[in-house]
Amino acid sequence: MPPIPAVAEAPRMTHREVMQALTGLLLGMFVSILAGTVVSSSLPVIVSDLNGSQTAYTWVITATLLATTISTPIWGKLADISNRKLLLQLSMIMFVLASAAAGFAQDTNFLIAMRIIQGLAGGGMGALSQIVMADILSPRERGKYMGLFGAVMAVGTVGGPLIGGFITDTINWRWNFFVALPVAIVAVIIIQRTLHLPAIAKRAVKIDYLGIILLSTGVALLLIWMSLGGSEFDWASTTSYLMIGGAVLSLGLFVLVEFKAEEPLINLGLFANRTFTFAVIASLAVGISMFGTSVFLSQYMIMARGASATQAGLMTFPMMAGLLIISTGAGWMISKYGRWKMLVVIGSVLQAAGLFLLGTIHYDTSFVLVGIYMFILGSGVGLVMQNMVLVVQNAVPQKELGVASSAVTFFRTLGGTAGTAGLGAVLAASVPAMIAERKTELTNALAALGDQAAEVGAALSSGSLPDVTALPGPIQLIIESTYGDAVAGLFALAAPLSLITIVAVLLIPNQSLSNQTRAERLKEEQAAESGMVRSEEPAVVSAVSTGTVTGERKEATDG
User: Fold this and answer.
1) Closest Cα partner for 259 from 300, 210, 308?
2) Are residues 187 and 69 in the same domain?
3) Is 280 found in the same domain as 149?
4) Smallest Cα–Cα separation from 34: which of 118, 128, 130, 147?
5) More exposed terminus of the chain, fewer Cβ within 10 Å: N or C?
């Protein structure tokens, strides 16, 4: 086990100092979310303009999530052994430069390449923001501030599609990738001036390069197989078998390497901690709900309801409103009362209910009803998502906080990436199949168009996403109804997986939240390891002194 890093003592920060320190952090998160969501409502327009296919549409999203998934545990490990503030700034600069470059894309291949770089940097921004919060706030205090993160996430997620849709409709979609630049510059400056973290003493570090390579290879092969299977190659094909075999072999070797590595990329001993294990399982399922379904909501609005890019952004507002309102209120309640378990359980139930309900929609379902369903789903995700990181940070030894925090984010993103890739592959296969079932109806509609039939038929058979609003009425109705049923089928497919979240959060021990910051808890862990004093946190002392993380803090008796 690596030694506990020495931590410089620092006085507890006042509320004003905390807010100053969090300002740049919140701006950085807003930039990350904005740069990712600003293209969501206009993505069908972008892919269509670049002559991309449904597979390209999925990969523009999946590439970012894939890179984020792979890089997240690497950033988390770096955060435990090096300057977290510098890492945060580097990831932010890297993210925005890639966003700016994406604005000059001439085809989907270059766009996907830039989105990969965005993802690599985004993994750092997502993981490091959670880790930095633990540096300056105790788990109990963190609840109300996590509400701020939820609010920023909701504003960025809602504002991004609105801004992106407006820019696409009034200027040009390329400006979507430039809009975050001014905010990013301000964020970097504020972080430099206001974010002051406890210093971790320098020590000799051994980077787990083999673990990084094996994990990256295994995850990449698995997600590429899920994304392209059934469209670029058959599920039962040599290519498919090679990808599955390569993924299983790489991930199996990764597990063996991590057991033997002096400083593993992911400490597998953390899985002996019940809180960590079930939080990981819940995060996997939440990732599918958060990313794997919300990604296709804009496509539903545009392709099934004939909305413009701006309208699509507005139409997804109910889901983000649910996330904003509920996560902010829940964060305040957690800090005030110290109870989190019931809120998370309620959130997991709402998440499942939202997905099941969205699985029943059609292209002509009342938007009021669709909005209610989205609000329920957003509320559930808002209650579960951020709190999984909080309960894990509260339960693990603080020397492992960076790795543990990033691991939860990693598995959530892995679930989202797998969900997006898998559901995207299902959509890419189901839409042509559903259109083929309506071949007679489509042929008759084309025949009625006369001279325009050849042009419309060529557009539909090109493999690119059609501009639904430009299609003649009868053809538009067929395409809208097809996409409406196809996207609803994705929600119905994801809904049973959300039941996993309910079971997992029910099994997470109901531990009380600590009132100590990371630095204060690290100091106790150091003292406990050296045998100087007995820690007031029994589970952490047990974990540190035995070299394991099997202990759980005493369960709360009041909640």
Assistant:
1) 210
2) yes
3) yes
4) 118
5) C
Tens digit of each residue's pLDDT (9 = 90 or more) over 296-351: 887 888 888 888 767 776 787 888 788 878 877 887 888 777 788 899 999 999 99
Domain hosting 281: range is: 15-194+263-441+464-515
CA gap 559, 557 in Å, rounded: 6
- Tell me the three state secondary structure of residue 53: strand
Q: The domain that contains 411 carries what CATH number?
A: 1.20.1250.20
| C-alpha–C-alpha distance, residues 222 and 299, integer Å | 25
pTM equals: 0.73
- Contact call for residues 225 and 37 (beta carbons, < 8 A): no
Using CA atoms, how far residue 97 sits from 93, 114, 120, 178, 444, in Å, is: 6, 9, 12, 9, 50
Residues 6+ apart with CB under 8 A from 440: none
Residue 294, C-beta contacts closer than 8 angstroms, at least 6 positions apart: 316, 319
Please name the amino acid found at residue 159.
G
d(CA 379, CA 318): 10
For residues 57, 60, 64, 66, the Cα torsion angle rounded to the nearest 10 degrees is 60
Is residue 271 within 8 A of residue 407, CB to CB? The reply is: no
Q: How much is the average pLDDT of 65-78?
A: 79
Q: Per the domain annotation, does 507 fall within a domain?
A: yes
- Residue 521's pLDDT is what? 72
